[in-house]
Specification:
This protein is mostly helical. It has 9 helices and no strands. Pfam families: Cytochrome_CBB3 (PF13442).
Length: 213
C-alpha cells in the first residue's frame, strides 16, 4: 500500500495546483466602460471623454483616417501602392520635403539629431547612438531600405508603423536624402547662386609654397 501513497499524493497535488492558475486575478477581470456607454464616474454620465487640448493625433493602422473605417478606394489604393513601392513613389518637390522635415522633427530628431549625425538629445542622455545618415553605408542604402527601417525598426529602434503613415514614411525618406545631399553634393551640380554662397562659406585654402627651381 505504501508503494502507492507517493504517486497518489503527487497526482492529488498536481490536480489541486492545476486549478490555481487564475487564483490571483491579476486584472483578468476588471470593471470597465464601453465606448459610448454610460458611467456614474463622470458628471456628464458618459464613458467616452473629449481628448485634452493639445492632443496629437497619430496614424493607427489602416482605419486611422476615418472613425467609420471607410477610407474609400482611393485611400486604400494609395496605401497599397506606398507599402509596395521599391523606390520613392512621390515627386520630389518642396511640399514633400517640408512634410518630411516636419515628421522627421517629431519622430526621428530626438535620437538622430537635426543634422542626422546620430547624437540627438536622447542619445546624450544615455540611449544607444544610431548610425549617422552620412556614413557611406546609409548613403548607399536604397530608399526602400530606409522605408523598411521606419516600418519595422532596427536594433533598439522600434517600429514606427503604428505612428507614421506610409506616405509620411516616404516623405521622411526624401528628407533624409536631402540631409545626406547637404554634405555630399557636388559643387558643379548646384544652382549657380547656391554654389557661389557655398564657395563664400568654405574656408580659404592655404597657398601652396613655391618649389625651388
Amino acid at each position: 500500500m505504501r508503494i502507492w501513497i507517493g504517486p497518489l499524493l503527487l497526482t492529488a497535488l498536481a490536480l489541486a495546483l492545476s486549478g490555481c492558475e487564475r487564483s490571483m486575478r491579476d486584472m483578468y477581470d476588471q470593471p470597465r466602460g464601453k465606448a459610448h456607454g454610460s458611467s456614474a464616474l463622470f458628471s456628464d454620465g458618459a464613458v467616452s471623454r473629449t481628448p485634452p487640448a493639445g492632443t496629437v493625433i497619430h496614424a493607427r493602422g489602416a482605419r486611422a483616417g476615418s472613425s467609420s473605417g471607410r477610407l474609400g478606394a482611393d485611400a486604400t489604393a494609395r496605401r497599397v501602392r506606398d507599402e509596395a513601392a521599391r523606390t520613392q513613389p512621390y515627386p520630389l518637390d518642396m511640399q514633400l520635403l517640408k512634410r518630411g522635415q516636419e515628421r522627421f522633427s517629431i519622430y526621428c530628431l530626438p535620437c538622430h539629431s537635426a543634422a542626422g549625425d546620430g547624437d540627438g538629445r536622447v542619445v546624450r542622455r544615455g540611449f544607444p547612438s544610431p548610425p549617422s545618415y552620412h556614413s557611406d553605408r546609409l548613403r548607399q542604402a536604397t530608399d526602400r531600405y530606409v522605408y523598411d527601417v521606419i516600418s519595422r525598426g532596427y536594433g533598439v529602434m522600434p517600429s514606427y508603423a503604428d505612428r507614421i503613415d506610409p506616405a509620411d514614411r516616404w516623405a521622411i525618406v526624401a528628407y533624409v536624402r536631402a540631409l545626406q545631399l547637404s554634405r555630399h553634393a557636388r559643387m558643379d551640380r548646384l544652382p549657380r547662386d547656391i554654389a557661389e554662397k557655398a564657395r563664400e562659406a568654405l574656408p580659404a585654402r592655404p597657398a601652396m609654397p613655391e618649389q625651388a627651381p
